[in-house]
């Protein structure tokens, strides 16, 4: 049979709870089961609900990760810029070989086409990944296009109401001249 809960157990639970100890830590410290500690806590009006703490910790962690992603995206942009500089920079090419195992080197004004393709691929990958880590902020262009689209649709409706149908297609003067055989 389990030993009865006494005032000493209640005092220990109350003290350790106030110190921020978890239910399982308290149970180990007072050599009681976690369910007994929960029962004592309920009697004392204490709770081990840490939802608010967990939510705050999660928010902090998300903010930290967002900051790290932004910093890494910046590093990727720096890599892309350094690689772009290499596209126009003199490049040292070397080889080691031949029957005499000789070392030879040559400096080219710019990288050879295969190297330029590899550099462009590196630039594209770095920029693409940086944009996925921190997408550009919406500058409102989509909303502007929507407003212009709405305006054009309204003008087309107004024209159709006034003239009994949609406007004739717009033909460029040079194209009209070609169509008439004037060109």
Shape: flat
Q: Give the low-pLDDT segments.
A: none
Write down the overall mean pLDDT.
Answer: 86
- Amount of beta strand: 5-15%
Distance between the termini: 110 Å
Structural class: mainly alpha
Largest sheet: 2 strands, antiparallel
- Taking all Cα atoms into account, the compactness measure Rg is 37 Å
Give the tally of β-strands: 2
Query: Residue share in helices?
Result: 55-70%
Order of SSEs: HHHHEEHHH
Number of helices: 7
Describe the model:
By secondary structure, this protein is mainly alpha-helical. The protein is built from seven helices and two strands. The protein has helices spanning 7-18, 23-30, 34-44, 51-86, 113-133, 141-163, 173-179, and strands spanning 91-97, 102-108. The chain has a two-stranded antiparallel sheet with strand order 1-2. A hairpin with a 4-residue loop joins β1 (91-97) and β2. The mean pLDDT is 86.
Give a short synopsis of this structure.
Helix content is 64%, strand content 8%. A hairpin with a 4-residue loop joins β1 (91-97) and β2 (102-108).
Task: List the keywords.
single chain, 183 residues, mainly alpha, two-stranded antiparallel ribbon, 7 helices, 2 strands
Q: What secondary-structure arrangement, pairings included, does this model have?
A:
Layout: H1 7-18, H2 23-30, H3 34-44, H4 51-86, E1 91-97, E2 102-108, H5 113-133, H6 141-163, H7 173-179
Antiparallel strand pairs: 1-2
Helix pairs in contact: 1-3, 2-3, 4-5
């Amino acid at each position: 049979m389990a030993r009865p809960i006494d005032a000493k157990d209640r005092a220990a639970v109350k003290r350790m709870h106030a110190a921020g100890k978890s239910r399982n830590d308290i149970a180990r410290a007072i050599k009681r089961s976690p369910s007994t500690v929960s029962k004592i806590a309920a009697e004392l009006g204490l709770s081990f609900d840490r939802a608010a703490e967990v939510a705050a910790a999660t928010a902090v962690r998300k903010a930290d990760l967002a900051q790290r992603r932004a910093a890494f995206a910046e590093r990727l942009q720096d890599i892309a810029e350094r690689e772009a500089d290499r596209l126009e920079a003199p490049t040292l090419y070397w080889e080691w070989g031949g029957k005499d195992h000789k070392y030879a080197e040559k400096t080219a004004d710019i990288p050879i086409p295969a190297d330029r393709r590899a550099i462009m691929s590196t630039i594209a990958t770095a920029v693409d990944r940086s944009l996925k880590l921190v997408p550009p902020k919406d500058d409102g262009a989509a909303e502007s296009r929507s407003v212009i689209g709405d305006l054009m649709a309204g003008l087309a409706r107004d024209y159709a109401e006034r003239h009994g149908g949609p406007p004739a297609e717009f033909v460029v003067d040079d194209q009209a001249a070609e169509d008439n055989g004037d060109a």
